[in-house]
Amino acid sequence: QVQLVESGGGLVQAGGSLRLSCAASGRTFSGYAVGWFRRAPGKDRELLTTINWSTSIPVYAASVQGRFTISKDNARNTVYLQMNSLKPEDTAIYYCAARLQGSTVWTDWGRGTQVTVSS
Questions:
Q1: Cα dihedral: 81, 99, 92, 58 (round 10)
Q2: What are residue 28's phi and psi, to 5 degrees?
Q3: Using one digit for the tens of pLDDT, what is the confidence trace for 4-57?
């Protein structure tokens, strides 16, 4: 099992940027896919982007394509989410999660970090 801790959230003005981090402990991300999700008030949880640790190939939801970038640091066992051109509708709690590559079940979750975008 992987323990995940998100950081980097905060308050930013519309048009600004933030970089979130997801650090793993307990084991490495090797063999896993890592994803970033968010849950906005009154809305369902939304999968934003995923990356396979072995291939480094990212996949993005249409809502963040071109604005958000997922990346990873093998040495730090950390996944990042660079968020640019932020909008008030990006306000949410952001979570990272992990699943075994080839599985559809997200088994490990962080506690989340709040991102608030003011207009």
A1: 40
A2: -85, 170
A3: 999 999 999 999 999 999 999 888 999 999 999 999 999 999 999 999 999 999
Whether the Cβ atoms of residue 22 and residue 98 lie closer than 8 Å to each other: no
- Tell whether the torsion through CA atoms of 85, 77, 36 and 71 is positive or negative: positive
Q: How far is CA 52 from CA 33, 35, 57, 64, 75, in A?
A: 4, 9, 6, 18, 16
Contact 17/41 with Cβ under 8 angstroms?
no
- The 3-state DSSP class for residue 23 equals strand
Q: Is the pLDDT of residue 62 over 90?
A: yes
Give the separation between CA 61 and CA 98, rounded to whole angstroms: 17
Q: Is the pLDDT of residue 81 over 90?
A: yes
The vertex-107 CA angle with 48 and 61, nearest 5°, equals 10
| Type of residue numbered 6 | E
Pair of tokens at residue 9? 């959230």
